């Protein structure tokens, strides 16, 4: 067993993140997780609701991209419109260190309540917006910032109740985001003809509000609260002196650059190739349906062959799926082919999301884990902020709006390149012994 493996196993036994009813000044005395119990499993359900409401909604960005391109923002380019969703994705990561420390100090409820209110309020304001800058402020910045707090609370609290079954618990939690990505496009497509787009957005806000009210009652932390550490670093770029962490972060940056393009543009591409409006929207649901097993099964494989080994394979296969399954659709429109690509891509992209943070944890030692997470999230936020606008700018440059080849190649090269860089990080950690579990 390597030192890094020992540190990660030690983390499972000593993890102490966010609060229970002890005073912040009391020392933290970690205990063995109860492997769920009624409170723990109810917490998992509540956390899954949180992921449904946040990442699940963001996984349906293609519905909004397509609508804005065809209607409210039709005089803007796809690249300009994509900044709305790029900001959402960026803000899902950038404030995470802040919300993590707030959770450590005050517990989940004081974070969940205001963030839930902000998300619902932002969507209600989106339903009143008719100008680009208004949508940027409401849907891009407001919802993105609130969703980050909800996401952090859900991801942290669920894992505190489990040790042996933590993978299963977190798999259920993250599957909530995929389920949201399945439900929201269908929900929007059914309602939009009945009540219009802006009425539909208000119904989405109502659904998220109901789920978050339930989540605020269900999500509970097990570990004692910590004092606010004024000396703790939010981001520490000296950590990039560690080659494994530097290479892994660079690889993940590249993968995230290309990851979201199919989510955002597959629907509009399908419309341009003669798909019905309903089927083009349901492609987004199919991507997210494929990601449900993709978020669970590769985690079990990673337990057997290693997280970095699995991650390297997944990233390269994700990029290759674009070249072999999505690019041919540009030259020969096939309903079956595009549906098959949506399911395969959903599975592989879901695997990347589920393995991303565990690989970050394994890229260094326990002593720098908190700073490493914060630094990694800051870099990923930049990737999310720039990836979709770059894809949109490439699409703009192709002129007709029908040729998506440049966008597809950019996404594929970014993900394959990212997978290769992550593979180099793996080699740096374990050498050329390919059978070694890393």
From TrEMBL:
GO MF annotation list: transmembrane transporter activity
Intracellular or extracellular location(s): Membrane
Membrane-traversing stretches: 38-61, 81-99, 134-156, 168-192, 204-223, 244-263, 306-327, 339-361, 373-395, 407-429
UniProt KW Transmembrane keyword: yes
Entry-linked Gene3D superfamilies: MFS general substrate transporter like domains
InterPro entries for the chain: MFS, MFS_trans_sf, Proton-linked_MCT
Cellular component, GO, one term: membrane
Keyword line: Membrane, Transmembrane, Transmembrane helix
Name of one Pfam family that matches: MFS_1
Domain of life: Eukaryota
Topology of this chain in the membrane: Multi-pass membrane protein
Family the entry assigns: Belongs to the major facilitator superfamily. Monocarboxylate porter (TC 2.A.1.13) family.
The protein's name in its UniProt record: Putative mfs transporter protein
Organism the protein comes from: Botrytis fragariae
Source taxonomy: Eukaryota, Fungi, Dikarya, Ascomycota, Pezizomycotina
């Amino acid at each position: 067993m390597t030192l890094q493996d020992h540190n990660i196993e030690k983390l499972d036994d000593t993890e102490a993140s966010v609060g229970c009813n002890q005073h912040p000044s009391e020392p933290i005395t970690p205990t063995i997780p109860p492997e769920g119990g009624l409170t723990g499993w109810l917490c998992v359900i509540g956390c899954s609701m949180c992921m449904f409401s946040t990442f699940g909604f963001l996984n349906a960005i293609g519905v909004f991209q397509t609508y804005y391109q065809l209607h409210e923002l039709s005089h803007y380019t796809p690249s300009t419109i994509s900044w709305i969703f790029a900001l959402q994705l960026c803000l899902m990561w950038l404030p995470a260190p802040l919300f993590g420390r707030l959770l450590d100090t005050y517990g989940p409820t004081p974070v969940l309540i205001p963030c839930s209110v902000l998300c619902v309020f932002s969507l209600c304001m989106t339903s009143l917006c008719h100008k680009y800058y208004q949508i940027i402020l409401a849907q891009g910045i407001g919802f993105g910032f609130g969703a980050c707090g909800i996401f952090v609370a859900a991801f942290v609290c669920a894992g505190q109740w489990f040790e042996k079954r933590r993978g299963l618990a977190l798999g259920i939690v993250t599957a909530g985001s995929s389920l949201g990505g399945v439900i929201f496009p269908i929900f929007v497509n059914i309602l939009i003809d009945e009540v219009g787009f802006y009425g539909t957005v208000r119904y989405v806000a109502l659904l998220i509000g109901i789920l978050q009210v339930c989540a605020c009652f269900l999500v509970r932390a097990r570990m004692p609260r910590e004092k606010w550490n004024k000396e703790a670093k939010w981001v520490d770029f000296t950590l990039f002196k560690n080659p494994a962490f530097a290479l892994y972060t660079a690889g993940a940056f590249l993968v995230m650059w290309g990851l979201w393009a199919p989510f955002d543009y597959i629907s509009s591409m399908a419309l341009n190739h003669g798909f019905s409006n309903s089927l083009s929207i349901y492609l987004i649901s199919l991507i997210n349906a494929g990601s449900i097993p993709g978020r669970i099964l590769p985690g079990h494989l990673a337990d057997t062959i290693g997280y970095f080994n699995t991650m390297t394979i997944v990233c390269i296969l994700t990029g290759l799926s674009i070249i072999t399954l999505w690019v041919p659709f540009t030259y020969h429109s096939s309903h079956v082919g595009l549906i098959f690509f949506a399911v395969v891509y959903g599975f592989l992209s879901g695997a990347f999301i589920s393995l991303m943070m565990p690989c970050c944890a394994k890229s260094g030692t326990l002593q720098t884990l908190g700073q490493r997470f914060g630094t990694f999230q800051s870099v990923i936020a930049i990737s999310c902020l720039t990836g979709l606008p770059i894809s949109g700018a490439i699409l703009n440059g192709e002129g007709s709006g029908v040729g998506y080849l440049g966008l597809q190649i950019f996404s594929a090269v970014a993900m394959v390149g990212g997978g290769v860089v992550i593979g180099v990080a793996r080699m740096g950690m374990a050498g050329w012994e390919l059978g070694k579990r890393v």
